[in-house]
Amino acid sequence: MDRRIVRRIVLIGSLIAAAMVFGIAGFRLIEGYSFFDAFYMTLITITTVGYQEVHPLSHAGRVFNSFVIFFGVTAMFIAMGAMTQTIIELQLHDRYGERRKKRAIMKLKDHYIVCGFGRVGRHAATELQKTGVPLLVIDGNEQRVARATQAGMLAMLADSTRDETLREAGVERARGFIAALATDADNVFVILSAKTLNPRLTVVTRASEEDAEEKLRRAGADTVFSPYSITGHRLAQALVRPHVVQLLDFAGQAFADHRDSGTAGSEADFGEGCGQHARRGSGGRTVRELVPRADAWGYCAGSIRRIAPSFSSVRT
Q1: Comparing C-alpha atoms, which of 113, 114, 136 is closest to residue 123?
Q2: pLDDT < 70 positions in the chain
Q3: What CATH homologous superfamily does 108-226 map to?
Q4: What integer pLDDT is reported at residue 294 of this predicted model?
Q5: According to the model, what pLDDT value does residue 264 have?
Q6: How confident is the model at residue 299, as a pLDDT?
Q7: Which fold has domain 3-102?
Q8: Is the dihedral of CA 190, 196, 198, 200 positive or negative?
Q9: What residues does 176 pair with on adjacent strands?
Q10: Which of 14, 200, 205, 244 supports an S-S bond with 179, CB 3.0-4.6 Å?
Q11: Contact 151/132 with Cβ under 8 angstroms?
């Protein structure tokens, strides 16, 4: 919620509370009312209900009640006006906010769509956001959509398995599509719909079950990742070939830092970045010391060439 609206709600509550405390304290001290009688007298006074006095008032009590009427009723009118303004602003904000969002979605072109903002979809969207590419998140959960919006992403609350939702998201104009829904069946369904609407679309998805990989590919997915298989592979490689895994992590992090810096990528700068990451994470050892075997080093160099084709060569 907007901080300005929160402050206004706090102001409304403070005004009403201050008027009530003022009236209760005055009636108890001047007229000797019990707490409930003082509370009731103050309440019917500032709300202008017009019931008769709880007990006959003395001259001093009437003078005090005049101040309660003036200040208390004024505070109530201010509170009611602020409350009405807040309600109207909230309604207008929701209405015009949706219109602005629809206009922003209609302007998207060559963008990337992430269906599902769960654990996998959230990390995928975050990585895409870091690259600065146009991005749209679709999820059927209101809390997840709010979380994506708070993170600065363009998000829409809708069922991504419906063709109408994909058309509204501009799937015909999109460049890439990530299907990260909760089940493989939903991913298959949404991929079929997306590929039907845009056959040139590049689709990436995840498979919860190994048996579903082939079905997802048949549905039209260009790349299918199995989180459990990938994790198991990395765990085994970290034990059997820890230096190779370490080198690839260094190279990937250096390439990401080089990309995020916005500099025009020279090979020397990239190599220096790899060296800095290797020195920080390997106790000062060189990259060749991390991968002592010549065949392993050649394999890693080839992998880096494939990962970073913008660099003309990787010196071995």
Answers
A1: 114
A2: 1-2, 92-97, 245, 248, 250-316
A3: NAD(P)-binding Rossmann-like Domain (3.40.50.720)
A4: 45
A5: 43
A6: 47
A7: Helix Hairpins (1.10.287)
A8: positive
A9: 112, 202
A10: 205
A11: no
